[in-house]
Amino acid sequence: MIAAPELPSEFHYPQDSDTRFSSDTDFSEAPDGGKKGKKAAGEKGKGGKGVGGAGRMNGHYQENGMENLMLFEVVKMGKSAMQSVVDDWIEAYKTDRDMALLDLINFFIQCSGCKGVVSGEMFRNMQNSEIIRRMTEEFDEDSGDYPLTMAGPLWKKFKGSFCEFIAVLVRQCQYSIIYDEYLMDTVISLLTGLSDSQVRAFRHTSTLAAMKLMTALVNVALNLSINMDNTQRQYETERNKNVAKRANDRLELLLQKRKELQENQDEIENMMNAIFKGVFVHRYRDAIAEIRAITIEEIGMWMKLYSDAFLNDSYLKYVGWTMHDKQGEVRLKCLTALQGLYYNRELNTRLELFTSRFKDRIVSMTLDKEYDVAVQAIKLLTLVLHSTDEVLSPEDCESVYHLVYSAHRPVAIAAGEFLFKKLFSTREPEEEGAPKRRGRQSPNANLIKTTVFFFLESELHEHAAYLVDSLWESGADLLKDWECMTSLLLDDPVPGEEALTDRQETALIEIMLCTVRQAAECHPPVGRGTGKRVMTAKEKKTQLDDRTRMTELFAVTLPPLLAKYSIDTEKVTNLLQLPQFFDLDIYTTGRLEKHLEALLRQIREIVEKHTDTEVLEACSKTYHALCNEEFTIFNRVDIARSQLLDELVDKFNRLLEDFLQEGEEPDDDDAYQVLSTLKRITAFHNAHDLSQWDLFSSNFKLLNTGIENGDMPEQIVVHALQCTHYVVLWYLAKVSEGSHRKELVSLRKQMRMFCLMCQRYLTNVNTTVKEQAFTILCDVLLVFSHQMVSGGREQLEPLVYSPDDSLQTELLSFILHHVFIDQDDDNGSTDGQQDDEAAKIEALHKRRNLLAAYCKLIIYNVVEMNTGADIFKQYMRYYNDYGDIIKETMSKTRQIDKIQCAKTLILSLQQLFHEMLSELGTGFDRSSSAFCGIKELARRFSLTFGLDQVKTRDAIAMLHKDGIEFAFKEPSPQGEGNPPLHLAFLDILSEFSSKLMRQDKRTVHMYLERFMTFQMALQRDDCWLPLISYRNSLQAGGDDDTMSVVSGYSSRGSSVRSKKIKACVFSLAEESSSSSADMSWQHQSMQTPVMMPSPHLTSTMMRGPGDMREEAKRGRDDSYMGVYALPSDSQQHPHPHTLPQTPQLHQTPIDYNTQVTWMLAQRQQEEVRQQQERAMNYLRTNLQQAIRRGTGLMEEDEEPIVEDVMMSSEGRMEDLNEGMDFDTMDIDLPPSKNRRERSELKPDYFDPGSIMDESVINPLFLGRH
């Protein structure tokens, strides 16, 4: 080794780390602590130019200690090869190691984002702690960002370049320089000190550097270990030779080489021991999750690279403990680190104890709330399963099995791989030279049966598509063995083989259909897709090959399958969906026309046999898929379809004529024949245009007879309504493509007759009929609303139909009586099966659809928006059932018209208030559950307005206006002197006061005073508390500027927002001055009792200049009236801050009561002014501290910086020495101040699931209103 000068005494390893953590690792130190004699500080300059001289690096001259910029800039830009950068630095180190080392120190400092520079004087004379303290003081406090956290492509690559520089530096210095007892000792000592800094940037950067340095040293140690083994093997070989052939000189050289390698190994171990004890054991439990993740990631690399030294329980325990970390990214690093270990089967024996201790934790992490963590946990269990089957118990495996039905696709795919390896990895070996077995005898037959058994045992029979999707990537070849599946269904079992049961055959057919769909469509089922993905050329070719293969197979086997299961509804329904995924050209190119004829015959027979709606709709869709004009088989299929429909329509007309014949009572057999034929026609009319058969007249006649007689079977009426609906829609589709006016008139007549018929059926005694009529009526009104003329379809203007008031009333009445009901009261729609949970869920689903249909009419302005008040007032009572629908409706209506939506919300509260009065009377208790429920509903409504007060300014103002008018609308029944009848409503209205802007609160307060009499302002009885509390809510914060001052420091964009607000205030004041709402308000104000204005006789000489400016400022703020614009007669009521005008010069003398009132007002204003002065003085004294706290060095959601050091203090590290008691490790970080503040808020925990089909409102439709 190279004899090296001593390390200066001020750069030393931390003494406490050498003793405090001696039990945390198997590494042992040399007796002397691993430290050798160091050169004195005064000897640094020998052998070089000395610190502070001029040098040359990377082809550039550097002077005055500023060379650190060059090294940092070169690494940051990443344009130069890192090898050449490190080589240049090594040359500089050989020339002047102090200067080069100072350059490296400043490189680490500047990589932390610090603007300070370590000078040569500081390097010579200051301790590490002093240097770090000085750098901390020079840190840029304007921003918490530093290179490792900065955004942008340049800084994203910086981390990789930074890590690469450290790795290359150690690699290039591994043969000599790192053993000089100067470079590594100095760097390790510096990084250890920085890693314990309170500044996150220093701690993060130095921890990353130390961990990467440790990884590089592990590689060096691994190379040394390999060289030592080789040298020892060479020495043993040479020594075992005969004495005559033995070369003693070679033996001495090998001994000397082994001794030198051992010394180097000891030094490397001392370095690694210092880094591990000085950095890792502190930072693996740092308060910052990213730092903890770095340490765990690197220790995983050490165990993987140098398993002989690191893969033991002394190091594995840190990974096991950290699997309980609170942050998902740290848990994720633990799992990825373990995956690298379990992937190597040679290491399994060393992991046995760890696996037994932490297996349960890994299994529980498959249900982690972070999906990425759950995916990696399942993959880790798959590796464990791959290494040995004995570790995981059946209960452990079952906890992973059910995840194949997860809605999150990566989790399901990982679980599918686990399931495939567990259940399908063992196949029957095929004999060499034997012909390949196919069909029922193929090796996949038992595996397919296993899949069916698993599907049935999981008891999730409606989710076969999810199971297939989960297994698709790992077992696609098995799932696409359709020949084996059809053989299992069609062929007889061989002797000794157990045949499939009926339930198993049903499951196999469903799985087969799902595999066909997955292969043909190449996208996951509904709920798992992450958007449309562009297919690669290979995937497209695979898709085409699969469609060709499935068509060739099922074109032949589908007719016999349909014939075998023709009477089984569920099996036939699934089999009939297969032709939708065929490549229909194969019928022609493969000469399979006879099989097509067989398929059409089977479909016809199924239509004649079945009356089930699902089967008939499947037949209709199959005909629709086969009747494609692009293929040559179209004519053949079209003829078969026309023949079938001709027979059905003729039969229906004949049966209907007999059924409606006068004077005869139709029997049940006639009704069944009519119903079955009508079901078939309706199912086909859904996908096929049957306009040529003129079904409107016969269906309308049938419906009209049902209205007149009242004894029509409900199912006949339901399907007749549905069939007529299809007739109207197909007619509209035809007219939209271009038609004469005569056809428009005919369609308009049919549509209006049909709407009138549906309206008449809304009063039917049968609930099912009423629900069908309501649903169809809502659809027709939406289709034929005013927005149908948008998109250049003005020719359809005669078809626009708007419901009259009576129809709107009936629709709303239906919703209130059939949707907003208790579960136990819904007798009609559940058919007496209230005890059946599935029936209750189905009934709720039906009611949700009814409510959604009506809410669409509100959103698209088909009905008046104020009808939504009856819906919105049910928000709290039926929140669990319809909360998402109602909230989404409120959101959509607010997007259309904010003010009208606000008026609707306040109307709903007024309706509830009226209902409460009628139930409890005028003397109700404001603490009653009914009144508190209305207040809670108002609070929820208030939360839906959000935090942007500028956007909702007009709406909130209109809401208060309507609320105030309602509160004073009805006088007291007890006579004058008592509170108005609805005064308690102001208590409810106060829930919206927090949404008012400051200047608007004063405006609303002025409007409130117009409704108050002089006596009302003096009342203090309990019955007047709503008025008092409402006035207080309007005055709170109205004149206080403290909040705006504080927010100005906390938000950098406050000045911009304030400018926008002022501009908005000015524009709104101009708009409101000429609005029609103000005209109506003016008319109302003439009949409203106005509070007598308090006389302000104070002379301006009694006020200071500051007070005059304050009054002027208030006058400007009060200029905004919004929806509160005072009427033109407001000149009769002078502003409180202005002197009386000329017409009021001849006043009567002020009476005693007025003087007392004025004196009380003056005293109240003086108290308010004193409170403001005290608040401003307090703010001035504490403002600097608030600024310092707001602009700290750490992240926005900052942790207290002292916690970072406390995490590694001696007291907090005592549990490291508790052996393998893994349950004690649970990192629970203290919540930050910001998190505590957020937790104190009262958020509205809503889940606005959008159930509306149309998510975007037509802009032309919005323009109309």
UniProtKB/TrEMBL annotation:
Signal peptide span: none
Record field: compositional bias (Basic and acidic residues): 13-23, 32-46
Subcellular location: Nucleus; Chromosome; Chromosome, Centromere
UniProt xrefs under Pfam families: HEAT_SCC3-SA, SCD, STAG
Biological process, per Gene Ontology: cell division; chromosome segregation; sister chromatid cohesion
A cellular component term, taken from the record's GO annotations: nucleus
Coiled-coil blocks: 221-274, 1161-1189
Residues covered by region (Disordered): 1-58, 1221-1246
Residue stretches making up the SCD domain: 280-365
Stated family: Belongs to the SCC3 family.
Name of this protein: Cohesin subunit SA
